Amino acid sequence: MLRARTAALFARPLLSRSYATPSSPHALVFLEHRNGVLDSGSLSALTAAAQLGGQVTGLIVGAPEHVQTAVEKAKSFKGLNALLHSTSPQYAEPLPEVLTPLFEKLLSGSSPFSHVISSTSSSAKSLLPRVAARLDAPAVSDVTSLEHDAASNSTTFTRPIYAGNAIATVRAPPSIPIKFFTVRGTAFNAAPEDTSANVEIKAIDPVEVADAPTEHIKTTLAKSDRPELGVAARVVSGGRALKDKDTFAATLYPLADVLGAAVGASRAAVDAGYADNSLQVGQTGKVVAPELYMALGISGAIQHLAGMKDSKLIVAINKDPDAPIFQIADVGLVADLFQVVPELIEKLKQ
Fold it and tell me: What's the whole-model pTM score?
């Protein structure tokens, strides 16, 4: 009898316990473009997304006549696994109030995405925090590095604070299902092209917004044959010492042209009307990190340093030997820039 009971006991099926494993990250990258030409910052966001170690899906929105051009270009970049696109006349200009419902549709319910990423552009800085708030999630801005822990499904970011004088380390725990962040373009290399990439392309229906609370009136762009300030390898910037708009142009533009450089300006120069607002470098302007940054007549206010101190080689010319710019400059010259710059141009032309 005992033998029979023992046999019956071992005849029962063995039970196995399964353990949940963290899912691989899946990033949604908002790829911005202007008239079908991808923004350089979006390519840096693509590189940041690839560093998470999971799948990367791009999202392109816009007017019907521009989206297809952007899609054809985007699908050739390394790191992209899939590409979503949506077209609508309402998407011709990326207004946050108009695009938010589309993002909500993609991210609500059983969304596969664990991260939403974009560059730190004016448009994205308005859009992503808005979407995050609608989904009751936090957003991290201006990220300069990231690390994803697949075991705990948490992501750790670093970002500059106090005008770049301190670095904050921020950890998004696994309790946050979708992690929103924007990346500083100068902190990540642009994604390289990979023509052998096999990218799945899918169209998604737009979410039309009736009676949008905001309306795009016009876009005014400063046209120039010089390199774009945000991605230029060389930048020549001027400050308040340039006296006026005409002197600013007569002094800086010839030097920029001989160097093949972009032109920048301090906030003081922009506020004084010497240069267009699109040329402002600093905490409230563009953040640049070129191979060469020349600061002419710029004292070095902390707000300006926040936008250029990561440059590889900083050259400063100022007649004030106590100017703060000399504290971070690799090469400094105490002299009258109106005498030095013309001589420098002549030497470079030789």
Answer: 0.83
